[in-house]
């Protein structure tokens, strides 16, 4: 914790001062903050936003792939894709649970998404046009997610870091299944290879943008790094991803659509071309190819699920009533026995 943060959030009471000291010590030791620990309001707010946006991304991210479940080319492909989409739903649920421990209930977080007050990853606003897109999404989008998320397993907020451990294991299965789809296509007929190349061409740029704006345009990054939430900057992670994908693309027999991509001996990394940040801003602001469709579908699914939520509430109330009746009955019996 740096001096300016203390100035921005003066600890008013003695209890808060002790809380702040404890928080600073935990961060300095690179240890973990747990839900009951005192934490600065800005830390809580940043994490609530980050974890809930991550949850929203997992849930919205089910749509482009769910779209292909009925059209998967074989029973095996269909069952793998179903398992993958189901994993993403699970990721959303762990993350909503982690976000809730910061104090905002899940229905409120969900409401923020439905009313357009919360964002989700811009990548899910692109259409999945062909079966090869299932490969490109798994290989590139889940691949970028792994690069981003492995360091988050060490995030200072305990419930977030722990949720990320399981999520990352599943993401690495997702990336491999995407790779395998592309590998089969790129070793199939010329048309199949072309379909795989076309999918990679469309998803590569947006996948690189998943790491967020360049470091110079990412004002919150530094604070997140000081709080041990983020461990590497957007550009560092993007570079790591490019370096990882080049040899994988070669092994696939596909090209990455960047004429400026070349090995830089001096830096020990691949140089890559400029990204289209105007496109990124357009998609993030809601004007991407599928933003409207994704939100309409989410609102529709939420409305269609109303009966499930109502049934769950009614069931919980019934169980609570039964438990209360049983307690009353036991107490009555006890009183009778004592009285007798
Ligand atoms: Fe996921
Ligand atoms: Fe995934």
Automatic annotation (TrEMBL):
GO terms for molecular function: phenylacetyl-CoA 1,2-epoxidase activity. SUPFAM superfamilies: Ferritin-like. The keyword Oxidoreductase applies. The gene is paaA. It comes from the Bacteria. This is 1,2-phenylacetyl-CoA epoxidase subunit A. Pfam families: PaaA_PaaC (PF05138). Keywords: Oxidoreductase. It comes from Citricoccus muralis. Residues 1-21 are annotated as: Disordered. Its EC number is 1.14.13.149. The keyword Oxidoreductase applies.
């Amino acid at each position: 914790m740096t001096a300016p943060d203390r100035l921005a959030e003066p600890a008013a009471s003695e209890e808060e001062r002790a809380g702040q000291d404890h928080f600073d010590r935990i961060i300095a030791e690179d240890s973990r903050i747990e839900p009951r620990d005192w934490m600065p309001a800005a830390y809580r707010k940043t994490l609530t936003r980050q974890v809930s946006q991550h949850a929203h991304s997992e849930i919205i991210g089910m749509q482009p792939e769910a779209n292909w479940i009925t059209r998967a080319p074989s029973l095996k492909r269909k069952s793998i894709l179903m398992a993958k989409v189901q994993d993403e739903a699970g990721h959303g649920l762990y993350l909503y649970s982690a976000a809730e421990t910061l104090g905002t209930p899940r229905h409120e977080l969900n409401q923020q998404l439905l009313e357009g007050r919360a964002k989700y990853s811009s990548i899910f606003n692109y259409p999945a046009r062909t079966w090869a897109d299932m490969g490109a999404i798994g290989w590139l989008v889940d691949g970028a997610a792994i690069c981003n998320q492995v360091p988050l397993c060490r995030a200072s907020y305990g419930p977030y870091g722990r949720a990320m451990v399981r999520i990352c294991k599943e993401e690495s299965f997702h990336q491999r299944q995407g790779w395998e789809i592309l590998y089969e296509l790129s070793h199939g007929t010329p048309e199949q290879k072309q379909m795989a190349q076309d999918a990679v061409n469309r998803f590569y740029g947006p996948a690189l943008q998943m790491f967020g704006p360049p470091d110079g345009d990412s004002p919150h990054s530094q604070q997140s790094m000081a709080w041990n939430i983020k461990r590497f900057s957007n550009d560092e992670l993007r570079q790591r991803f490019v370096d990882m994908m080049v040899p994988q693309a070669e092994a696939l027999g596909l090209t990455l659509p960047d004429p400026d991509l070349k090995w830089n001996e001096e830096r020990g990394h691949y140089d890559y071309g400029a990204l289209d940040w105007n496109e990124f801003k357009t998609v993030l602001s809601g004007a991407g190819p599928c933003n409207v469709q994704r939100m309409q579908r989410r609102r529709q699914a939420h409305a269609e699920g109303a009966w499930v939520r109502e049934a769950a509430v009614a069931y919980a109330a019934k169980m609570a009533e039964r438990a209360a009746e049983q307690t009353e009955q036991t107490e009555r019996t006890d009183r009778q026995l004592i009285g007798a």
